[in-house]
Design a protein that fits this description.
Elements lengths: L5 H10 L17 E3 L4 E4 L12 E9 L5 E5 H4 L3
Antiparallel strand pairs: 1-3, 2-3, 3-4
């Protein structure tokens, strides 16, 4: 597995967006975003206490700089991990 690079995640995401820019935040309308230096593992197992790395989805985090709303994007699809 490659090492996570938040700059690569951001670049890969922007390249797939219409007009290569982020749409306004759906909660506050701000168009400024930040990324986190690490990624999140979203657990996909319905058995509490049993979820592990084989039952999770590594996801990049995009954060609105105004209201703090977070969106998660699957890193495997973006080829960013």
């Amino acid at each position: 597995m490659k090492k996570y690079d938040s700059d690569l995640f951001y670049d890969q995401l922007v390249s797939r967006l219409q007009d290569n820019k982020f749409p306004p935040c759906r909660f506050c309308g701000c168009d400024k975003y930040a990324t986190e230096v690490s990624y999140a593992n979203i657990l996909t197992d319905d058995r509490l206490g049993r979820a592990g790395l084989d039952s999770s989805i590594p996801s990049g985090i995009l954060i609105c700089q105004n209201c703090g709303h977070m969106d998660f994007f699957v890193l495997g699809i973006l080829d960013a991990l």
